[in-house]
């Protein structure tokens, strides 16, 4: 699902079928439900889940915890805005 389609899906009450847990986490985050997003990110202990988990803790303002998750997935702290990181993540998970 491309970025435009992903953003359009946010008008619905639930995420589209077939999204990975990492994609669902980003979907719930965009809907303003950080807790549900965090729950989805924790569902899979894979690179994608850890990367989204890092973003969520950065968004929360817990940079120490975010740093832990960035390191676990082999990524650096994102240098751009939270909105830019969200879009980058959505595009990388297509």
Question: Which features characterize this protein?
Answer:
0% strand; mainly alpha; Serine Threonine Protein Phosphatase 5, Tetratricopeptide repeat; globular; 6 helices; 94 residues
Describe it:
The protein has 94 residues and is mainly α. Helix 2 runs antiparallel to helix 3 (34-43), helix 2 (21-30) runs parallel beside helix 4 and helix 3 (34-43) packs antiparallel against helix 4 (47-60). It has a single domain (20-92), classed as Serine Threonine Protein Phosphatase 5, Tetratricopeptide repeat (Alpha Horseshoe), CATH 1.25.40. The radius of gyration is 12 Å and the shape is globular. The relative contact order is 0.16. It has helices spanning 3-9, 21-30, 34-43, 47-60, 63-72, 82-92. Helix content is 66%, strand content 0%.
Overview in brief:
The chain has helices at 3-9, 21-30, 34-43, 47-60, 63-72, 82-92. The chain is mainly alpha-helical and 94 residues long.
Topology:
Elements: H1 3-9, H2 21-30, H3 34-43, H4 47-60, H5 63-72, H6 82-92
Give the proportion of residues in helices.
55-70%
Please identify the top-level CATH class: Mainly Alpha
Distance between the termini: 5 Å
Instruction: List segments where confidence is low: pLDDT < 50 over at least 5 consecutive residues.
Output: none
Continuous helix count:
6
Structural class: mainly alpha
* Architecture (CATH level 2) name: Alpha Horseshoe
Kindly report the CATH topology.
Serine Threonine Protein Phosphatase 5, Tetratricopeptide repeat
Strands, total number: 0
Which radius of gyration do the C-alpha atoms yield? 12 Å
The total tally of domains equals: 1
